[in-house]
Amino acid sequence: MEPAGPPRVAPSADVSKEAVIGDGSSIWHLAQVREHAVLGEGCVVGRGAYIGEGVRMGRHCKVQNYALVYEPAVLGDGVFIGPAVTLTNDHFPRAVNPDGTLKSAEDWEPVGVTIEAGASIGARAVCVAPVRIGAWSTVAAGAVVTRDVPAHALVAGVPARRVGWVGRAGRPLEPADPSPQGAPRWTCPVTGTVYEESDNTIREVSH
């Protein structure tokens, strides 16, 4: 494999000199990447997107146009953030303190959204911190996530609830014959991988 090469940053992008951008990454027009943010190799930050101070992103993440990734969010490898997604960082937001004074950074403690490897967040979804999105799960467009999402879950609605399971290919899984123990099984229509349901999540049992 050829070297990825240095990051590509559009002239209109605002990237802090204190941010770390991995080789082969692209930061597009009008995007902003704040101080101490760390992006892994091969990431894409779309037009007008915002990456907050100290946000950490793994390798090969995609943050689409006008998404807002507020600190202290953590994204694993291969995470997809759709257009206009918002990852919040204040569970009890207020512009002012009880005495009417404007809140400063010292007047609140940010909480973050953690998204594990391979997960996808659909367009205009909102993830309300603190919340964890499990590996290879999918949050449907327009959903509002207020509680943790299990690995491989497909969640939708306001508030988001599980409506199915998805495999690594992102397609909804189809019912398969149950295991000898009676546990529900599911098949990926793309890869043929079989998953077994257990303890509010699923696991691969064959390819």
TrEMBL record:
Superkingdom, taxonomy of origin: Bacteria
GO molecular function terms listed in the Swiss-Prot or TrEMBL record: tetrahydrodipicolinate N-acetyltransferase activity
EC nos: 2.3.1.89
Xref: InterPro entries: Hexapep, Trans_hexapeptide_repeat, Trimer_LpxA-like_sf
Enzyme class, first EC level, given as a word: transferase
Keywords, ordered alphabetically: Acyltransferase, Transferase
The keyword Transferase is annotated on this UniProt entry: yes
Coiled-coil regions listed in the entry: none
Listed SUPFAM superfamilies: Trimeric LpxA-like enzymes
One Pfam family it belongs to: Hexapep_2
Keyword Repressor: no
Protein's name according to its UniProt entry: 2,3,4,5-tetrahydropyridine-2,6-dicarboxylate N-acetyltransferase
Gene: dapH
